[in-house]
TrEMBL record:
<feature type="transmembrane region" description="Helical">
    <location>
        <begin position="555"/>
        <end position="574"/>
    </location>
</feature>
<feature type="domain" description="Endoplasmic reticulum metallopeptidase 1-like C-terminal">
    <location>
        <begin position="645"/>
        <end position="877"/>
    </location>
</feature>
<dbReference type="Pfam" id="PF22249">
    <property type="entry name" value="ERMP1-TM"/>
</dbReference>
<feature type="transmembrane region" description="Helical">
    <location>
        <begin position="616"/>
        <end position="637"/>
    </location>
</feature>
<keyword id="KW-0482">Metalloprotease</keyword>
<dbReference type="GO" id="GO:0005789">
    <property type="term" value="C:endoplasmic reticulum membrane"/>
</dbReference>
<dbReference type="GO" id="GO:0008235">
    <property type="term" value="F:metalloexopeptidase activity"/>
</dbReference>
<feature type="domain" description="Peptidase M28">
    <location>
        <begin position="136"/>
        <end position="333"/>
    </location>
</feature>
<keyword id="KW-0472">Membrane</keyword>
<dbReference type="GO" id="GO:0046872">
    <property type="term" value="F:metal ion binding"/>
</dbReference>
<protein>
    <recommendedName>
        <fullName>FXNA-like protease</fullName>
    </recommendedName>
</protein>
<keyword id="KW-0862">Zinc</keyword>
<feature type="transmembrane region" description="Helical">
    <location>
        <begin position="378"/>
        <end position="398"/>
    </location>
</feature>
<feature type="transmembrane region" description="Helical">
    <location>
        <begin position="515"/>
        <end position="534"/>
    </location>
</feature>
<keyword id="KW-0378">Hydrolase</keyword>
<feature type="transmembrane region" description="Helical">
    <location>
        <begin position="586"/>
        <end position="604"/>
    </location>
</feature>
<keyword id="KW-1133">Transmembrane helix</keyword>
Length: 879
């Protein structure tokens, strides 16, 4: 290739309308990426069943969900709705399916009731789960005349039919119960599969994943289960996201890839979830821990997470197209698993000395790309090498065509790289400063109901800085013989260098989501290579058109991924257990900067090739100012009725604190107001009259175990210092002998400095026991589990153990529960008691315990709030 030496071509600036066109195309690409998340197959109606006898009928699934959500309603463990009505409904549907099944199919089903316990571990807490009377409905579908001894390699589908308090649960998890019932009907009408199908409708997930544990450790069919398909909902509607698989079974992705017609899966979601950024858990966790031989998929609907665990999780949020999407995919996945050889050649974790995780992502739901992490490392390393080579060649070419010395050419590139880094850092810094200011001014979360505000508040400032810093540099060196076109090319090469360094770092850290940096740089390499081959870099602005065309597909993908991240993460800001302590603006600003960097980073430098570019830059500033003003108006108020409500949980609580001598040291009643987001109760202070009497509980948090408050589970302690208490009349709780109790049955010395305590617990269907040894004392053994667990959390430098107790069927006739533990004290321990123990009893579904004043208080909250509420009893003792 002959290089043109010592040429200083001056390229005329491009007309401004071309950049406006490019910008409009980018906007169109964003909406294309977003809308692809909501594209569904045509739902099949019951009237079409004769034509589609072998297809999933979404209307049937919809009808099942409607009955669960509308006719039965909320289904909390221990309530008749869950333990009788929901169980009866599912049984009736199973019996109807059996009556109409294919003669070559055999169906067995069982209703199981279990008691048990296990240690539930998460990144933040460890909790002992005790359960009694937990119900499961288990169905096995297989070929007729095959004995159970000859059966092997079951495929298990799991969903749960219980809900959180006061939520109809149309989405979580009524949607997947409806889907599974329709899947059961469909496969009962087809010729038998090679492998039996197990359908587990579990009756207790919401209070700690108890029912799945009960099935795993007790049911005889479990030992033959080889594959799990877990079906969950964290936001009704939308597509089911395949967000994690068991890492040691990479063949699962191969089955998914080759069989599922509507792919929706990404490693990014898997790594976000597994790093604890989403405050949810699924039954997948129990299968991974207690059944490590099982290969497992975890699917979840996650579109409208605003409705998750609220009264708005109703039929209005359910889309038949969404159900059809899920049904078609799961049917195809089951068929693919059934015909695979891998399911018959399963190996346990103990047999696997090494395994390789996979990188996976779909493109607009059209197809799936996946490969092993090792392959990813190799590909990323090769890409980094070729990017380095082509950038080096382009810098050399630039130096040669401009007649520069080697050092001058390198210096020009280093300056361009510095300018690009500076622009990115200033852009990100400005975005974070805006996030800080909005929070300080009490205007955070303006985007919560209006996500379009993010464009003006964060995208525009970041993009402005990313383009303005190079603009200043070019303006400063106006008289340089190097044309703007050449400098812009250097800036683009510098941007690629930044991304390629990021790619190398993330790959080295073992972060599989590094693939997102590979996509745009790979296309950059392709277009740059073509520009070099055809010498477009020296032919005016021709290189620009090929460069822009080459970034269209990456931009669509990044906007698609960005939309997915907004959908997943924005609603979390209003339901986080530590939401009051964190400024959510930082997260949204960070995501937006990343989307802008990836989706528009290769476009920002080219702004400096256009006429009137200062007006283009000014346009972004004007948009920012306009959107910031809008955010300060009522339009920027975060919450909307039925769409995006602010969450509260309020417990009308009676508390009694007993000293070691049996005397009451404190007794009171009040409303404990638990808030989830950054605003706390501020938005309702001037609307709800009684809120003017609310006081912070900081003092009690510093003196009492877990603030002395009736937390529904230990996660609620995360926001404790930001919550409030309103003194009130006592709730209408039952008195002796029906009052819950925690009684010391026996306390005896078993060795020097060791005492064994036996307690008896009885009360409501949802209770907690909290134990905290004093300094100088520790619990060394107990009856809850075979071995001692780590403490649930440290509170005021003391270990706190949290025990969660739930009773399901026949909860009105529950028997007392007895437990023991051993406390060891130091030699010089001189206090009169060695530990505190508290009982928290919740009356979740006992309306007769609600006072008129409490009902009026709840009614006084505005319509844009979602208020979970019930009564509770808190009893604390010293021993």
């Amino acid at each position: 290739m002959q290089l043109i030496k010592s040429q200083f071509p001056v390229h005329d600036p491009l007309p401004i309308w071309i950049y406006v066109l490019i910008f409009l195309v980018l906007v169109m690409l964003f909406f294309l990426g977003y809308s692809s998340m909501l594209s569904f197959p045509r739902p099949i109606q019951k009237i079409d069943e004769l034509r589609y006898s072998d297809r999933f009928i979404s209307e049937r699934a919809y009808d099942h969900i409607a009955y669960l959500a509308d006719e039965i309603g909320y289904r909390v463990a221990g309530t008749p709705n869950n333990e009788i009505l929901a169980v009866n409904f599912i049984n009736e549907q199973i019996q109807e399916i059996i009556a109409n099944k294919n003669d070559d199919i055999e169906i067995e089903y069982e209703n199981n009731v279990y008691d048990g316990h296990f240690l539930r571990q998460s990144k933040m807490y460890e909790v002992i789960n005790l359960y009694r009377g937990v119900q499961n409905i288990v169905v096995k579908l297989k070929a007729r005349n095959v004995s159970e001894s000859d059966e092997k390699n079951y495929i298990l589908l799991n969903s749960h039919f219980d809900t959180v308090p006061m939520s109809p649960g149309a989405g979580d998890d009524g949607t997947m119960v409806g889907v599974m019932l329709e899947l059961l009907r469909l496969f009962s009408m087809k010729p038998p599969l090679r492998h039996p199908l197990i359908f587990l409708f579990n009756g207790l997930e919401e209070s700690g994943l108890q029912a799945s544990h009960a099935f795993i450790v007790n049911h005889r069919w479990m030992e033959k289960v080889n594959v799990l398909i877990n079906l969950e909902v964290v936001g009704p509607g939308g597509k089911e996201l395949m967000f994690q698989t068991t890492a040691e079974h990479s063949w699962l992705m191969n089955i998914y890839h080759h069989n599922v017609p509507h792919s929706f899966a990404t490693t990014v979601a898997e790594e976000i979830y597994q790093n604890g950024l989403i405050p949810s858990d699924t039954d997948f966790t129990n299968f991974r821990k207690f059944a490590p031989h099982v290969a497992a998929y975890d699917f979840a609907h996650a579109y409208n997470a605003y409705a998750y665990h609220t009264k708005n999780d109703a039929m209005s949020t359910i889309s038949k197209g969404s159900l059809q999407h899920t049904g078609d995919n799961v049917v195809a996945l089951i068929k693919g698993l059934d015909s695979s050889s891998e399911i018959d050649a399963m190996r346990t974790r103990n047999d696997l000395e090494e395994f390789d995780k996979v990188v996976f992502y779909d493109f607009l739901g059209l197809f799936l790309i996946f490969y092993s992490q090792l392959t990813s490392t190799i590909l990323n390393s090769v890409l980094f090498a070729v990017l380095t080579c082509i950038v080096a060649w382009c810098v050399y070419h630039f130096k040669h065509t401009q007649g520069m010395k080697f050092r001058s050419g390198i210096l020009e590139f280093i300056i361009a790289l510095f300018i690009q880094v500076l622009g990115l850092l200033i852009g990100a810094g400005v975005a974070m400063f805006i996030a800080f200011l909005l929070d300080v001014c009490g205007r955070s979360m303006s985007w919560y109901s209006n996500q379009w505000l993010i464009f003006g508040i964060y995208f525009c400032p970041f993009f402005f800085c990313n383009a303005f810093i190079p603009y200043l540099y070019i303006k400063w060196r106006e008289k340089s013989p190097v044309s703007d076109s050449y400098y812009v090319q250097l800036a683009i090469h510098a941007h690629c260098t930044i991304l390629s360094i990021g790619l190398a770092v993330l790959t080295g850290l073992g972060i599989r989501s590094s693939f997102i940096l590979a996509i745009s740089t790979m296309f950059y390499f392709g277009t740059t290579l073509l520009n070099v081959i055809f010498d477009f870099v020296n032919k005016g602005n021709k290189w620009l058109y090929l460069h822009c065309l080459g970034q269209i597909l990456p931009s669509i993908f990044y906007f698609y991924m960005g939309s997915m991240m907004y959908v997943l993460l924005i609603p979390i800001n209003a339901r986080a257990y530590d939401g009051a302590d964190k400024n959510p603006e930082y997260m949204v600003a960070g995501i937006t900067c990343l989307i802008a960097l990836l989706g528009t980073g290769f476009y920002a430098p080219i702004l400096n090739m256009f006429k009137h570019r200062k007006y283009l830059l000014g346009m972004f500033l004007v948009i920012f100012v306009v959107f910031l003003i809008i955010a300060m108006t009522p339009v920027g108020f975060p919450y909307r009725e039925k769409e995006s409500e602010q969450r509260y949980t309020i417990w009308h609580t009676k508390r009694e604190f007993y000293r070691h001598d049996g005397e009451i040291r404190k007794a009171d009643s009040g409303y404990y107001i638990y808030t989830y987001d950054r605003h706390g109760s501020t938005p309702v202070k001037d609307i709800v009259p009684l809120m003017k009497k609310a006081v912070k509980i900081d003092d009690e948090c510093n003196t009492e175990m877990l603030c002395g408050m009736p937390f529904y589970n230990v996660h609620y302690s995360g926001n404790a210092f930001y919550n409030e208490w309103i003194p009130s009349e006592p709730p209408l709780l039952p008195s002796d002998p029906n009052r819950p109790y925690l009684r010391l049955q026996e306390g005896k010395s078993i060795a020097r400095n060791r005492r064994e305590y036996t307690f008896v617990l009885a009360g409501t269907d949802h209770m907690s026991v909290v134990i905290s040894p004093l300094k100088g004392a520790k619990i060394i053994n107990w009856s809850f589990t075979e071995t001692m667990s780590k403490y649930s959390k440290l509170w005021n430098n003391r270990e706190v153990y949290y025990i969660n107790y739930v009773h399901g069927v026949d909860s009105n006739n529950m028997k007392p529960y007895e437990f023991t533990f051993v406390v060891e004290t130091d030699e010089n321990f001189g206090l009169q008691y060695s530990f505190e123990i508290a009982l928290v009893a919740h009356y979740i579904h006992k309306d007769e315990t609600l006072t008129t004043q409490f009902k009026d208080f709840i009614k006084s909250f505005p319509k844009w709030t979602n208020v979970q509420h019930w009564t509770s009893l808190y009893l604390s003792y010293e021993y």
